[in-house]
Amino acid sequence: MTISSNNKMISAQPSCADIYESGLLPVEQALKQILSALPCLTDYETINIEQTKGRTLSQAISAPFNVPKHNNSAVDGYALNSKDLPNKDVASLSISGTAYAGKPWRTSINPGECIRIMTGAVIPSGTDTVIMQEHVELNNNTISVDSKHHKGQNIRLAGEDIQQGETILFPGKFITPADIGLMASLGVCEIKVQRKLKIAIASTGNEVISIGDTHSASTIYDSNRYSLYAALQRPDIEIINLGILEDNPEALLNSFKLASKTADMIISSGGVSVGDADHTKTALQQSGQVDFWKVAIKPGRPLAFGHIDNSVFFGLPGNPVAVMVTFYQFVLPALEYMMGIKDKVCAPKMQVKTIENIRKKTGRTEIVRAILQQESDGAWTVKTTGKQGSGILRSMSLANAFIILEHDRSSVKTGEIVTVQPFSGLF
Ligand code: AMP
Ligand code: MG
Fold first, then answer.
1. Which of 87, 139, 220, 372 has the most C-beta neighbours closer than 10 Å?
2. Which ligand is nearest to the CA of 319?
């Protein structure tokens, strides 16, 4: 796994203010640059079908037989030869047997005969048409059929769903419950999937303490590692928890170096700004490479991206909301790209009317925490969760969607259409 660095944005490492004045890296460009620098997993593992939900296929799945395998009945009724269908009036046919799903009728029928047939039963030889039981008149062992029917009706043809040899799933497919059912219908049991992506997470900061440690006036509990841990809890990821790292360039460098030996990706939070205790970027520069570190996004402006040996590195900001926003806008698409997921859009975006004025500066993308709701007339509208400070994690907890206010957009007025990204596609 190698990572190419193609950053040309930061040659002289300007200060935050310098970059701000000369224009930060727009979000779309940052994401493009991130994706173009990412390696893709090439290793796979073979697992049982029951464990494949939320994993990514690394093989093609082809049908070993037709689905359905045989012509079979789509309804409960009577199978007959269409030559016995009347052109006018009615025809009487005697019932010579019953065909069940899983218990076919194996004897051929004679002219003037029919077979009672259940849904899913193989069409008996000598018959080519099924009449629904509601459309015949039954008298003892005889049915009367009128002239409204046609040859071939109510029969599901062999291979109508899937043809033998047809490829139905391709490498890169993010496996859903429907895919699992489909593979099961073909009798596939062992499946090759991309191996799990190993992601190491760390919090940084001398003021940051773990839950359970004694709280003082100068400490804060670590929330970032918990929200990141939860966001990464999915079947295709193995999380390596590096704990809390102190604001010390050497300690950071050692931990990142060590993590890079096993992790495909390292995500840290905090210490990426320009304060005296912000050493993440320096550690990254010494142990690997920084590709850029300022993005025109609010919240989340200081963001380091780069690599340490074979590990991709994301240095997210320290503020809890900024961590979550940058995770969903940059890290999530990145890790899904690395796993070779081809068909899953990270999260759908929709256009919705806002019922609130929202202040916005041009020249940066602003990600607003919002509530998407359905009005009594059925229309969907969106409003903010209120205070939007990058440390106010409650704004994320109250929200069920992001409003994405694009780079060039200025303040938004009530009634305008905005881009909304519901959490249901992200979380
Ligand atoms: P920094 O970018 O390291 O200066 O952090 C920005 C703000 O986020 C500071 O107020 C930090 O105390 C806070 N912060 C940093 N890391 C965490 C964390 N793991 N959990 C909660 N808050 C944090
Ligand atoms: Mg810090």
1. 372
2. 1
